Input
Amino acid sequence: MPKVYGVGTYDFRRHRVAEYPLDDDQELRGGETTSAMAAPPPTAPGTALAGSITLSEIQRDRLTKIAAENWAKGAGDFKPELVREIYDTEMVVKGGRKTVPLQRVMMLEVSQYLENYLWPHFDPQDASFEHIMSMVLMVNEKFRENVAAWSCFHDRKDTFRAFLERVLRLKEGRELSMAEKTNYLLFMINAFQSLEDEVVSERVLRLVSLQLWHSLSYGRFQMELCLNPHLIKKWRKLIKKEQKESKKTGKPFDPSSSLEVTFLRNLIEEFLAILDSKVIPDNEDGENMNSFDSELVDASCILYCERFMEFLIDLLSQLPTRRFLRPLVADLAVVPKCHLSSLYSHEKGKLFSQLVDLLQFYEGFEIDDHVGTQLSDDDVLLGHYSRLQAFQLLAFKQIPKLKDLALANIGVIHKRADLSKKLSVLSFDELQDLVCGKLKLVSSEDQWASRADFLIEIMASFFGKRQSQKEAINALPLYPNEQIMWDESLVPSINYSGEGCLALPKLNLQFLTLHDYLLRNFNLFRLESTYEIREDIQEAIPHLLAYVNKEGESAFRGWSRMAVPIKEFKVTEVKQPNIGEVKPSSVTANITYSISSYRSHIRSEWDALKEHDVLFLLSIRPSFEPLTAEEAAKSSVPERLGLQYVRGCEIIEIRDEEGGLMNDFTGRIKRDEWKPPKGDLRTITVALDTAQYQMDVDRIAEKGAEDVYGTFNILLRRKPKENNFKAILESIRDLMNECFIVPDWLHNVFLGYGNPSAALWTNMPDLLDVVDFKDTFLDAKHLVDSFPEHEVCFVNSDGAENLNPKPPFKIKLPKVKASGSHALSDATNPTNSADMEGSLNKGKIVVEPYIPMDPGPYPQDQPKQNSVRFTPTQVGAIISGVQPGLTMVVGPPGTGKTDTAVQILNVLYHNCPSQRTLIITHSNQALNDLFEKIMQRDVPARYLLRLGQGEQELATDLDFSRQGRVNAMLVRRLELLSEVERLARSLSLPEDVAYTCESAGYFWLMHVYSRWEQFLATCAANQEKPAFVRDKFPFHDFFSNAPQPIFTGESFERDMRAAQGCFRHLSTVFQELQECRAFELLKSTADRANYLMTKQAKIVAMTCTHAGLKRKDFLQLGFKYDNLLMEESAQILEIETFIPMLLQRQEDGHARLKRCILIGDHHQLPPVVKNMAFQKYSHMDQSLFTRFVRLGVPYIELNAQGRARPSIAKLYNWRYRDLGDLPVVSEESVFHRGNSGFSYEYQLVDVADYHGRGESAPSPWFYQNEGEAEYVVSVYIYMRLLGYPANRISILTTYNGQKLLIRDVINRRCMSNGIGPPSKVTTVDKFQGQQNDFILLSLVRTRFVGHLRDVRRLVVAMSRARLGLYVFCRRALFEQCYELQPTFRLLLQRPDALALNLQESTPYTDRHVDDTGTPYFVSGVEEMGDIINFKMHQLYEVQAMSHQLHDVAESEPMDAEEEGRSSPDQAPREDNDSRMINGTEDQSDAAEGAEEKGDLTMEMGEKDGADLR
Output
């Protein structure tokens, strides 16, 4: 059985790396987080880096030389004074919002300062403050760059623990600077976000344990024990344990001396002191400066306060860290003190105030901290009422002045203003006694307790009514407005460097509740959509050229493809609110615009708008005078655009100039009545966001604001594929409003608590005792080989041993429980289950071979058979997938993930025929690949359904869409009824029995089944007669058209088996007719399609986007499914993985879902998140699959690849545990032969500066390298001239700018001479999931490594090639990158100059792949161009000679068909090169055109490539 891997240091390496370009005033202008020696030229530390810095200047830098002398390649001894000197001169800043000189720390990080110098020479006893602080800074930088931070520490775990202890005690007896405090705090944030690391979690979780309550004030401590009486026993045990430990040490028992008791309280008190006195300094009178003294505000203190808010939010948003910390946060009144601070209301404290509000939300989150259960709205409301009732009772008994409050209705005192007014009758002393003495909400020793406003704030915070999550989410507009779009705290711009924090939720390992999970995802998905919408607006509006005309109104000189001026806008209807709501139930409006100025193809895009499409209404009001350069630099984006308001809307219907309805999909207009739209004017009826409308109306009524809806003058549309955010947000909001049920077996694992192995199939009830594996095993030896650690015993049905077993097989699986657990919620003593020994213990496996029933006499009756010889690991994945529970399969490149998934579906269908399975993938291409392979298995086509837009791309003549399946069922019904009619004729019965499916059913019972029963009865008495079956079979005439004689008359048993096969054929016919009856009864197409989806189909496939868009429709139709299989799950966003689990309603309070099978590869690229801040800060690009791996959920890793040559596979198989090769890569000759014209099958080609220049950036983040582009295209032309087909070559690069540059070079050099483009020219990211025989890869960068430092991108780049991989890059840059060393170490074992075999002139060679031949080393781009020119000249000469011979011998032309038929083993003649080149040009153009349209899955000419192979 395969190994099932769980948690461990190997499994998760933090590797989300992206580019972090910095502003002009930062040290690293125009660069990003890199792993090259990103140091400046030799200048003073901290000075700005010139944009034209070269690699040679980097190598001359002071730090580069220090690294080379002291720690590069193990050079030099340890010098403590050097560490101090580097820290003091290179790593410390004074003042400002910077905590480190980023550029200098980046350089130290990539020079492996931590790995090669600081950590190897770290001594817990003797390490200096500078040594420890340097390590802290380097760890922080690794987290900022999202590379593995803790991996280098695991070689000495005891020393690692000692290092963490030293860090925690770093502040003892030393005052840190503000920058050092912020860096220290950031280290603690990173540590608490790494709870999957056992050493880290073991230490830091003790800081938030029950011991922390020693630091509570006495009143708060008593309150907490009263509220949680179950903790009293634990507290007493803790006290006894501490007393025993103090006796052993001989020291008096003093809890306050323990680090676990004092650490967090001291940290919080230090923050409060800074917030109170240092952020905004006191003036001479002892009062805080106000907002007009903003220049005097300490920016470093503000950053520290923001980071501290982030720290507390992180701790309160995870249950293990929240449970005992929340009372301390309440005891110290952190939130009220922040509310009353000067920074909270200061103009520079906007981000801080947003973070405080987020902290307040998580402090009062609706959860039972000690049980972990979600509190319902009723529970929260009852708790609020009980607190107020107890307070009123106290006031009535003990405080006469508060009699009015005691007797007041609860509804008039739960608001802050009302409560403050009621408390104003108390004197300060009485108020203080009430808050500190009677209620014990805060300690009387707190310095803030002497402020009346603070005491009232405490009361308001404790007794005020909080808005519920549901109320907040329902009151939130789904469409973004202009205020949110350009709020940098919520939607940061692309140049987020990772140095500051943001007012955003994070997706980390664990969530408090499912509502918390949904809320975080809702906010992040909404803001990510907002960012994309903002980019579209900023791109479209400048093209309109807005100005103010003579009438003083806004007008437009230009035009935009995506935006059109509005002729008329009018709100037509505002409906009354629903009961219990304030906002209107609906708001509709009409918008009129003209498309007269557009060309036909753009007109058709506007006319393609349909119901439910989302549009945006913009109000543009440009300034009278153009902004000066200085004004434009200081102004915001909306000010520069003249943008006033942005509102979203959804189309209800669209009409042409004559009022004709367009694009109607509701059935109001029949197909034969459809007419093309008339005129140029279009009128759209739209639904406005009711929540936003109510907010706008309230603002007009309360503040006299401008009527937004009278100012709209631009209508903006977006690309359909990018405009589905509203439906997904509605799905998330609906989930929050529903009482949805996640299966009990998955609930805790999903939230990140409990035993991560709990959902493994061996821990599940209702297992399948015996599994029929059908065609999984090709023979008995295959089965035995699939269980190498078990004794396989073949037995017959009677228990006797079977000595000649043949497939198919039924296997009885032993019932065992998986061992090992790792629960983050109780990680004080974690267990490492990194090598859990699979799902089955060693023992005996009982296998029963059986003879399947005869399927029938016709070829179409024969089942389709599997031909894949599954590996033992794949068999383990199939076993796990068939059983109930959670199955996770990690599929490295080329390991047969799709084949494994398809076999799981096949076996599952045959073992559980009544169950329905839902298939989800990320892309249409992956879904179609999966679906096409399912069609090749023994699953009837009538049970398959493909939903969504990509169905037309299926490589099949059958239509698997809903309408296609309905039509197929109707056609099949007629075919089956004709068969019934033929059967009736053969039985000499009236043919009207085949009029309907119902009459055919009666015919089956009355005439067919009855005859069969009579036949069986007579056969039972005549088994000794060999010819009896042949003579008495009642349906002999019907089967007379069988291709082979059915009965021999020689054996009763053999003929009886054939007769049963014939009857099975008849049974299938009438069963299908029974299934067709619903389509006979249902008359409308919609009803038939819905029945097909909800009842008929057993396997339904769709993309995750389609599932999110149509969830509401699925629920309304009563869609049901038992199993969920998700392919590409490591590429799907968390929320897009979660929604498909909940496309059905619960049954009797229980979830129907029985199996969840996730297949993916977390070592390849994650989901795409366009905004850097959401990706880096909020971890939005973390998939559910990756999170489960981090949590330690067991998974099966496929361990044999069959895609690439073994030598090429070594470039990336180091990233996986045990990735080997399938026999096919060692058996097929194509993998043994070298690549014609090349000495090596893979090679790194060092590309020097071209025309004195390496990388360039014509615009920010648009990187290009002309030298690499020319070199890559030259090599491509060289391959084409040798005869390589274009469809076997793909050109990849790591940047869009380079992709476009390479396409330009190809258009210039390849299109005019008939060479044509390659199969694909695209980026590595876009090519994930695809492959080709030969890959030419351009890495572009020459100054900084860039985002290739993300190892996952490297894995994708190296694993796309089957036979040849040629990497063009700057060697001196990439060979120094720590993360990429395993791959580049192999690449650099070969010469870095392109080695060609110029003697080979055809695409075929007998030369072995290990034989380099006589290599000719190309010196550079120019020489490669000379070689191409020489080859082209030779080709032209041959062509000219060929044309002369053709003219002379025109009467004997070469047969064109014979010319094009060159076998793989025969080299094509050189004079045919031009014809072969031209032969693939049209196909490649089609592929390129498809890619430009966004179809990244189209691979043209694959058959030609297969033939050549």
About this structure: Residues 6-53, 817-841, 1453-1509 have pLDDT under 50 and may be disordered. The first strand starts at residue 4 and ends at 5.
